Amino acid sequence: MGAKTDIHFNSAEFLTQLQQRHTNAISRLVQSYTEPLFKASLGLGFDSSTADELVQRVWTTFFDVVPKFEGRSHIRTFLFGILYNKALELRREEKNLAKSDPIEETMESRFSDDGHWSLPPIDPEQFLVKSQMAGIIKECIDFLPLTQRMAFCLKEIDDKGSSDICKILEVSNTNLGVLLFRARNRLRECIEKKTKLEN
């Protein structure tokens, strides 16, 4: 998707066509964004059939609410916002997770009494540049709790700004900071364990 396509999709004229249910406008939007939405669903850890269902839910919701969409955010941001909210709903339907977060104990074991790392962590960013580590990174990202995974993927992979992520996930800036902190530390733990097993 080039810049010209993006500008077209976000134009007032295109928005009006969508709101008036013009077949051509709907068709172009669906063709352009179904695959990115599907890939993002897979990236959130859903299998292909569930990812398919999730994308269908996104389109159903989008066309329900598009008459109220004023174009203040880019249409892509709007679609992915729906996707992440629907992903959360789907997870809630699948299971009610109310498990305690073991990250607190993990963090305590990683720090000395004076607040410094007792064993310096391996920075996940170092692994991102090494293609042979991509599989481990993906596996570790898949193990993150859904909201942490979404926050991390939006920030580090989709390169979204904090204000956009807060809108998409419907969290405060402080909560986003906590989610990212926990996600990064879980990733460090997971990557370290997996690399030790391989060595």
Give a structural overview.
- This protein is mainly α.
- It has two domains: 3-94, Rna Polymerase Sigma Factor, Chain: A; 103-198, Orthogonal Bundle (Arc Repressor Mutant, subunit A).
- It contains eleven helices and no strands.
- It has helices spanning 3-9, 12-19, 23-43, 48-65, 75-94, 103-110, 124-128, 134-143, 146-157, 162-169, 173-198.
- Helix 3 packs across helix 4 (48-65) and helix 5 (75-94) crosses helix 10.
- The chain is elongated.
- It starts with a helix and ends with a helix.
- Residues 1-7, 96-100 and 127-131 have low confidence and may be disordered.
SSE arrangement:
Blueprint: H1 3-9, H2 12-19, H3 23-43, H4 48-65, H5 75-94, H6 103-110, H7 124-128, H8 134-143, H9 146-157, H10 162-169, H11 173-198
Helix pairs in contact: 3-4, 4-5, 5-10, 8-11, 9-11
